[in-house]
Amino acid sequence: MNILTLWFHKLGSPPTFYRLAGLLLPWCYGIGLLLGLVALYSGLVLAPRDYQQGDAYRIIFVHVPAAWMSLFAYAFMAANAFIALVWHIKLSEILAMASAPVGAAFTFIALVTGALWGKPMWGTWWTWDARLTSELVLLFLYLGVIGLNAAIEDRRQAARAAGFLALIGVVNLPIVHFSVTWWNTLHQGSTIRLMGPSKIDAAMAWPLLLMALATHIWFFGSVLMRARIALLQLEGGKDWVRKVALDEGAAGG
Amino acid sequence: MAEFITMGGYAFYVWASIGVFVGVLALDALAPLAQRRRVLADIRGRLQRRAAREQREHGGSP
User: Would you say residue A136 lies in a domain?
Assistant: First the structure.
């Protein structure tokens, strides 16, 4: 075994992962929060007003990062579900299931802030256009995965069944992403593009990208937090969990 | 400052969006804390019950 696979195996062992995740976690939450506050301040105060939408466009600074995270979290969940199904790696099952509620939270934010933006700009809270409908389907997929995972008693079987559902739902990701180009939608096209020039001024773009970075870091903090709890639950009878439970009990936790 | 609060007449929409964003993410961070306490208390309870049972079976009557 070379160094890399050895390291990988060690990281995959529950007590090691639990400890490392515990070390990383406060940094993820802390840096995510700090960057998020800076991004909010620069988006709401420093960025100039839009010539067409006035100050209402400022919703973009929370709406777009949340919508990006809804897709990113799903891709992360599905990738882990795939690894879990193929190689039966316990940690991947846990990471997949841990990302479902966080992804659902971001999808919910994207839908609600989208409605709050749609009302003043389009004149309606909701319309059954391709982008909005596929994003709503994404929320239902998350809820389906969470529900299925909760409905089965055996934790590992539950994670595998829910992971399978998550994998089927991957079909929806390109639909969400390309819906604005494939169909004639009320929703506008992409403002920030990886390929080609973006259609946004730099003074508005950097708070948006900073918030995107903040939400990614926050996402990993939140996933690690949930993964640690799931590990405690799954490994309840093991010595290392006993030690964690008794140590925290002594500390009054 | 007043301009910052009124958001050019879009105060409700902008501030509600920020509120939902911050509120949901705050819940996202707080919910696992309660769950963690519950899981750990559960594990401790199981350990105590098992210790009591072992004492009855081994250290009980002469």
Answer: yes
